[in-house]
Fold this sequence. Notes:
By secondary structure, chain A is α/β, with parallel strands linked by helices. Chain A is built from 11 helices and 9 strands.
Amino acid sequence: MKFVRLCAAGAVAVGVSMSSSAMAQVDNPECVAPANPGGGFDLTCRIAQTGLEGHLDDAVQVTFMPGGIGAVAFNLFNTTRTDDPTAIVAFSTGSLLNIVTGKYGEFSEEDVRFVATAGADFGAVVVREDSDYESLDQVMADLEANPQDVVIGAGGSVGSQDWMKAALLIRDVGGAPMDMRYVAFDGGGDAIAALLGGSIELYMGDVGEMSAHLEAGTMRILAVMSPERLPEPFAEFPTARELGYDVDWTILRGFYMGGDVSDDAYDAWVAAFDAAYETEEFAALQAERGLLSLNLSGAELEATIASNMETLRTIAEEAGLVE
Amino acid sequence: METVLSGLATGFGVALHPLNLSLVMIGCFAGTLIGALPGLGPINGVAILLPIAYGLGLPPESALILLAGIYYGAEYGGRISSILLNVPGDASAVMTTLDGHPMALKGQAGRALSLSAVASFFGGTLAVILITMFGPLLAAFAVTFSPADYVALMVFAFASLASLVGKSMVKTLLGALIGLMLATIGIDANTGVPRYTFGLPDILAGIDFLIVVVGLFGMAELLHLVEQQVAGKLKSLPVDKTFVRMKDLALAKWTILRSSLIGFFIGVLPGTGASVASAVAYGTEKRAAGVDGEKFGTGDVRGLAAPESANNASAGGAMVPMLTLGIPGSGTTAILLGALLMFNVQPGPLMFEQRPEIVWGLIASMYLGNVALLLINLPLVGLFARVLTIPQRYLTPLIAILAFIGIYSIVGNPFDLYLITLLGVFGWILRKLDFALAPVILGFVLGSLFEDNLRRALSISGGDWSILVGDWKSVSLYILALVVVAVPIWMARRARKAAQAAAGSERM
Amino acid sequence: MADRIFAGVLLIVTLAYGAIAFTAISAPFQYDPLGPESWPRILAVVAFLCGLGILFRPDVQGLGVAKPTWVRLVAMLVLLLAYAELYEPLGFIASTFLFAAVVSVMLGARVHHAAFFGVAAGGLGYLLCVVLLELNLPEPAILEMDWAQSDSVDDDAAPDAPADTTPADTTPADTTTETTTDEGGTD
């Protein structure tokens, strides 16, 4: 029922002629958040909605398509709405991981067209304020000596992006992800509670969620997992790379379209995002939503994702998550 | 104390915001209405209206204020049909019929209604005061709970559930198990392995909470109404001009205070709600009245005041474990808890620190709500009594229409409408077989908490099971669990012995 | 008896549930000693024992539902399913009007009262939910066809249009057939 209806929405929309003008022309633009309202995908779509105001003729409508943490939407845009020029779908690095581990079914990242990013977040290695660990070096030394020595917690299951951050660390000191002592929590909030309560020693968090906690002074960030130093208020934290560990973890939030979308339609969206990236309002919007600026669009984004996917595949294969 | 005052300041800042203030009013009014309708209790009311509140796109604190208003408003309204019709609005109002209806038969309906309104107000307000004082303390303490302590807490929750709810212990347990089994559907939060999804992407993230709630409660209630439909019209006694007197309050003041405290503490116990609280309070007062206790059941003001102050106090008490520990204190708070999760708010001890606007906004709104309920209930009771005469033939389709609006408006998927209908049939069958539905929803909400914390505890300890009894917090919770199971059994045995002794002495 | 049948069905479901837990569920690797399969196994065993308990010591003999009540219940179920089926093709107002009117007649309302109630439920419900509260409820398919074809309608009118656009292959004729079947079925 839903499929037929949505398919028809695509068909109707295709019939409408596309024209490109100075302002990018997309009729009845839509951002599909592949989840229930209120989560991260909703947030991603709201950034498109507010951020593209004035860069598209019409306002972007946000619609919801829950199911399988994005799998339902991903499959729909690979089967029936492959050439829908009006709709973009929110994704995150977590979606890419789900593609790698096969949770999204038979289709891969090469079957869709990645349009643009909404922003990014980065991994952070966090300990409690009174922890014995003063630096990432001490943690890494302990992990190298005996991976079972450090109780690591994060807000996601094995194979999730939170787990990947821990797996990357342990790989860098020559250990295997299977050997660590990893405790999976249901979201960052639970894991932070466990860190504060002393159940875990190391929390693999995200930079964005830490700003509120840093003011309270209950936790310390040992290192951030970004490629380069972050802007204020995170400028004081060293990156793991600076400290000599070849790891970083970027959580991309962005949008894709169906694989058969015409170049004209695709370019119209990319142009709209490129125009929005130029404005101060967009940067302010990202900051307000707890995201850091990482503005990639079009071919540049596709290239970044292609190289990310290779790393993800390697780790997943090593950990036995992919057969 | 300082945190309490600053918390209350934050809370009233939120609750007095015009939007939230009107939501308190709407919630209380709608709640009283729902409670007054025969058969529709707080849990069904909240279940049916939850998706609509969600679809409105309100911020989480506003949605919670609205839903909580419906919850304790319905505890208020339940007494109206009990007194005037002798038909309890739901299980928690059963005890109210015992003395409330006889009073109405004696031509004192107005007196009974106003007395019960005052008793409800007192019970509700005392509960909020206790939450204000002890909530933050309990939350600050609960922050130190480790996964192993949470396992003990779950054991305690299921123990109090098994001992206090329902007619048959096996059926209560089985109901909870059905909920627990439903909760295992979806991706395992620990290893990322899909369980019982049969390759369907729609349930990879688990079965949608809203659908379960609206189906099991709202739609099952509708089928129940269709089944119970009576050909004739229920006859409501008129609301007369009598009013509660100072003498009544003087007679019932200790009853109200004791019953409020009993109600609050039973409400705090995970899983047990207003129906147990009102029954225990009624029984206690009957015994406390001594020889006078024989008048109970013939229209005694104490017999009316006890269950009414207890069930409203328990609605407040049930909020305590929800706000401080992240586990529900009753079936209805299980639904509120699920609502918070849908808003991406993790209920639990950190909420006081991280989302004070939600916790304190809710608490402040309950102060306002109780005053509002008293104010709208005293003069408008005649209006609510008119609701009782709404024929079921219009009420029944209305429930379906509301449920459909709520479920459809979230994501616009018509398939969900079939799902809630079928779940409604399942819920109706469970009810017909004497299964209480509250354990099912508690199992569903607590299931992943229980399993995940058990597995977390074991991965923290590296597989050493002794971590489960590793500190005094978990050990004392296990002892408490034993107590809640053992005490009712012991009391039942003692009552039987006393009855035997009495029978024996009579023969002599 | 009713208890026994239910317990029997439950035992079969539990057996299937347990069988999956004992054979199919496993993780490529795990950090906790229990893994994804142990918890469902425990639940299956306990539920199985509870089911057996009810099978041997049932306490509800029958559902106690009289035959006319069964008829009414089944009719209600059919009406609910029909309501769900027609929700999108007819739109909220028309389907709600039909449902509310037919149900209240079935439960004993006079026809003109029922018709008034149906109009009130559909109309007021629409005004309240869509106009005032801006909830997303289905528009009638036929109207949307017109909108889709005429196309020149101002864009303001299309907030929820993309998700709700009509199936292109549903002709107005289809919808009418469905309506007739419904009326035939409910009489």
